[in-house]
């Protein structure tokens, strides 16, 4: 739900005591590099922001139906506050048209901490950047938003809620010729965490890549202008300009897998690599290589598409005449497609592959109460109920055969 954030406000206390200061007032070499990195990424992924011949300063330009809108998702933490400051610096550039909207989601899970985050975001938007109420959108997770009751599933529910609200907001402000995108504050360290989590959970080698700079979710394009920057750089950017942010205490809780990777595994890896920067560089290179391999595999699969008429509808046939890497990738994609794009652990692919030549029906669990049924190189996916029904039929056949032989 969208609530008015101007009524009933209370004074807030900030984690950082330094006053906010406009980022356009500092022109150190480091600040310029950070701003140029974010600008280059945004311009590459949202080229419609570039308007040759426009006067300098977004504040001096009339926003029209052709001006792209960027929905900046700002939590109040260091990453998203850096995103907000950088987007503001970008919209003030020469020949840039950008209608900046700020979106804050208040999950109400941390009591006064959540209140402080919300109040900081609203205060900065209004006092530092002059954004009016129509460009600042605050959402609360209330009784109508399927609030979580337990720790299990909280992050997935919250993500789904945020996606729905963003999609509705984008639809409300889009015009006939206007591009609307959401900007999120994922950075290089987040990409490292993503690769490690994929590795630990199991995935195909072509999926072992980091976060995409541009992706579409529920019909809304999301861009990540900070992927070329590390968390250390973003913190330094804020500190050098005496800009404020808040710390989320839940980021230290090890109940979530990502927090374990972030707070336990990555620090140890940074020590081994030599520095946080060195670790990011290693994983960035891995990400580039995986993306090259993925493009090669994709081109090979597209070039050598199988004759679908040879298979029964919904059945995948494994060929031993094809290179194993390509055939395993096709199998992985088939299983994921049968799960409507949900995660498929690669150990399931390994097990299906191992059973491909079996003359008897084998069932391999692939998650979400679904099973891959394998026999003589043919694979299809059935539900748990269907498997139990087929098992009962098979058992009945065996009993009948034993009785006839007896």
What is the topology?
Blueprint: E1 2-3, H1 29-45, E2 69-73, H2 78-91, E3 99-106, H3 112-127, E4 136-140, H4 154-173, E5 180-183, H5 188-201, E6 214-217, E7 220-223, H6 231-240, H7 257-273, H8 276-303, E8 316-317, H9 324-338, H10 346-354, E9 362-367, E10 370-375, E11 378-383, H11 384-405
Parallel strand pairs: 2-3, 2-5, 3-4, 5-7
Antiparallel strand pairs: 1-4, 6-7, 8-11, 9-10, 10-11
Helix pairs in contact: 1-2, 2-6, 5-7, 5-8, 7-8, 9-10
Q: How would you summarize this macromolecular structure in one to three sentences?
A:
With 406 residues, the protein is an alpha/beta fold. The protein contains eleven helices and eleven strands. Helix content is 45%, strand content 13%.
Report on this model:
With 406 residues, this protein is an alpha/beta fold. It is built from 11 helices and 11 strands. The strands form 2 sheets. It has a 7-stranded mixed beta sheet, with helices on both faces. A 4-stranded antiparallel beta sheet has the order 8-11-10-9. It is elongated. 31% of the residues are buried.
């Amino acid at each position: 739900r969208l609530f008015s954030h101007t009524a009933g406000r209370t004074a807030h206390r900030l984690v950082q005591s330094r006053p906010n200061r406009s980022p356009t007032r500092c022109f150190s070499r480091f600040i310029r590099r950070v701003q140029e990195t974010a600008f280059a990424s945004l311009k590459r992924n949202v080229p419609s922001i570039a308007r040759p011949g426009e006067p300098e300063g977004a504040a001096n330009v009339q926003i029209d139906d052709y001006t792209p809108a960027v929905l900046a998702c700002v939590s109040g933490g260091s990453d998203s506050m850096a995103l907000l400051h950088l987007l503001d610096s970008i919209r003030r550039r020469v020949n840039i048209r950008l209608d900046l909207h700020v979106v804050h989601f208040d999950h109400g899970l941390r009591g006064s901490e959540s209140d402080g985050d919300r109040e900081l975001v609203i205060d900065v938007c209004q006092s530092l950047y002059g954004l009016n109420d129509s460009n600042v959108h605050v959402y609360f997770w209330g009784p109508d938003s399927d609030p979580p009751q337990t720790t299990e599933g909280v992050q997935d529910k919250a993500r789904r809620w945020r996606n729905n609200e963003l999609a509705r907001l984008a639809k409300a402000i889009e015009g006939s010729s206007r591009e609307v995108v959401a900007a999120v504050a994922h950075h290089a360290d987040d990409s490292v965490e993503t690769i490690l989590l994929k590795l630990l959970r199991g995935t195909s080698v072509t999926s072992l890549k980091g976060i995409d700079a541009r992706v579409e979710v529920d019909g809304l394009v999301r861009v990540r202008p900070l992927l070329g920057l590390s968390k250390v750089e973003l913190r330094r950017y804020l500190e050098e300009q005496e800009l404020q942010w808040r710390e989320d205490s839940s980021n230290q809780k090890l109940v979530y897998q990502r927090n374990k990777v972030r707070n336990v595994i990555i620090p140890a890896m940074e020590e081994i690599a030599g520095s946080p920067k060195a670790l990011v560089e290693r994983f960035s290179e891995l990400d580039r290589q995986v993306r090259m391999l993925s493009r090669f595999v994709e081109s090979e699969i597209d070039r050598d598409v199988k004759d679908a008429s040879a298979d029964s509808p919904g059945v995948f046939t494994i060929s031993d005449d094809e290179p194993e890497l390509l055939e395993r990738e096709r199998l992985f994609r088939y299983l994921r497609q049968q799960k409507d794009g949900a995660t498929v652990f690669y150990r399931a692919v390994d097990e299906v592959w191992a059973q491909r030549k079996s003359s008897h029906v084998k069932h391999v669990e692939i998650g979400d109460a679904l099973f891959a049924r394998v026999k003589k190189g043919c694979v299809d996916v059935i539900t748990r109920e269907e498997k139990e029904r087929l098992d009962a039929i098979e058992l009945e056949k065996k009993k009948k055969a034993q009785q006839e032989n007896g």
